[in-house]
Write a structure and sequence with these properties.
By secondary structure, the protein is α/β, with parallel strands linked by helices. Helix content is 48%, strand content 17%. The chain contains 14 helices and 14 strands. It has helices at residues 17-31, 67-84, 98-109, 128-147, 156-165, 182-187, 210-220, 238-247, 262-271, 286-293, 306-309, 324-336, 338-352, 357-392; strands at residues 3-7, 35-41, 50-53, 56-61, 88-92, 113-117, 150-153, 173-175, 197-201, 228-232, 254-258, 274-277, 298-301, 317-319. Helix 5 links the parallel strand 7 (150-153) and strand 8 (173-175). The longest helix is centred in the last third of the chain and has 36 residues, at 357-392.
Length: 393
């Protein structure tokens, strides 16, 4: 295997769990002397069609909805495809339109295709938001479910959901966790935003539960009046959340600092009292293990794949989703019990090591090798069958 094409809906300069996963896989593969290209969506439209980031070629195509827009992308592929042609295609995140483009490339280049299901890609039994995303994407993503060579999911919870919602899909499905770069996290400097603060690194949309955290924080400040809540990230909910802060009279106790890079996020985790992941729906949440690797205690909700990424009572504390009093209780438990906090830090560091790319990376490479080998055998069988039929004519 000499070359891999990673495809994701968004990539650099965007920051998020999927973007981080793509970036760190690319970094790992380069260490293995494997050439990596990334194909992503050109959003906003002001981004360059082509760019090099961390020695990886990034190709961007416009988002597509109509037949003419997909045709334009197909023509673009004919023009630029030879530069990207890999031994295997790996799509991370089942968001339109790129999985369908990946399927076209699979047959255009005659190479195998791996599809990874991440958070919010398919319906969720407990949260309507991913279902809305799925309704928008299903016409272009469902065919990829049927024709991918294998589907991986970043948690057992998503694997169960996939089999529940799509029992008719015959493609092999297995769990393969997202990982973290512990060496990178260890090297990040510590940054203290202020003396005492809770940190939450989240996309600001309803499914991430930041409104629940702010309401819980209003309870916490009755006991910890000097504590600050620092929220990094941006999204459609930010105006509502800022209004909520004013409504609850939290004033300067809550700070919104906008989108930040991965290194600063890790640095702020290292300086925080703890981090909170109050999601209503979550595949697993890389930030959970990034925080544990950074020595930052985690309080998170018991939803989706989070219990696989945070061991309750061992590497962090889990609370009920959408439950303000329970979230406030768990946060104050960590704030007030120094011994428990130390135990969570120690347990978190040990748990995070299981998610290091040095551990998980070889599993991805082994998967690629096995899929490429299976693909070659299948092609040989098809060629032999064709020859047999041809000779019988």
């Amino acid at each position: 295997m000499k070359k891999i094409l990673l495809i994701s809906s968004l990539y650099y300069p965007h920051v998020g769990g999927v973007e981080t996963m793509v970036r760190e896989l690319a970094r790992l593969y380069r260490k293995e002397k494997i050439e990596v290209n990334v194909l992503s969506k050109k959003w906003p439209i002001s981004l360059f069609d082509y760019e090099v980031y961390e020695d990886v070629d990034i190709y961007r195509v416009p988002s597509a909805r109509t037949d003419n827009e997909f045709l334009a992308i197909a023509n673009w592929i004919k023009e630029h495809g030879n530069n990207m042609k890999p031994d295997i295609i790996h799509v991370i995140g089942a968001r339109r339109p790129l999985p369908l483009i990946a399927l076209v490339l699979r047959y255009y280049w005659n190479v195998p295709l791996v599809l990874t299901i991440a958070g919010g890609d398919i319906p969720d039994k407990n949260d309507p938001y991913p279902g809305t995303v799925w309704e928008e994407s299903k016409s272009t993503v469902y065919p990829v479910f049927e024709h991918a060579d294998i589907i991986t999911c970043v948690s057992e919870d998503i694997t169960r959901d996939f089999r529940h919602f799509f029992p008719e899909i015959k493609t092999a499905v297995e769990t393969l966790y997202a990982g973290i770069d512990i060496e990178y996290i260890d090297k990040a400097p510590k940054e203290k935003y202020c003396d005492d603060y809770i940190f939450s690194l989240r996309r600001l949309d309803p499914t991430k539960g930041i409104h629940i955290l702010i309401e819980a924080f209003a309870i916490i400040t009755r006991t910890y009046s000097n504590l600050r809540l620092v929220i990094a990230g941006d999204g459609s909910e930010r105006p509502y959340l800022e209004e909520l802060v004013q409504k609850l009279r939290l004033g300067d106790n809550v700070k919104f600092i906008g989108t930040i890079g991965l290194e600063r996020g890790i640095s702020l985790l290292k300086g925080a009292k703890l981090t909170v992941v109050p999601s209503l729906s979550e595949a697993g949440g890389l930030v959970n293990v990034e925080a544990q690797a950074a020595g930052c205690p985690v309080v998170a909700t018991r939803v989706g794949g989070i219990p696989e990424y945070v061991q309750d009572g061992i590497s962090g504390l889990l609370c009920r989703p959408n439950d303000v009093p329970d979230l406030a209780k768990k946060i104050m438990l960590l704030l007030g019990d120094k011994e428990l906090r130390g135990k969570m830090i120690e347990g978190g560091l040990a748990h995070a090591r299981k998610f290091d790319w040095e551990v998980l990376g070889p599993k991805y490479l082994s998967l690629y090798d096995s899929i490429i080998e299976m693909f070659k055998r299948r092609e040989l069988c098809q060629d032999a069958l064709f020859q047999l039929m041809w000779n019988s004519l």
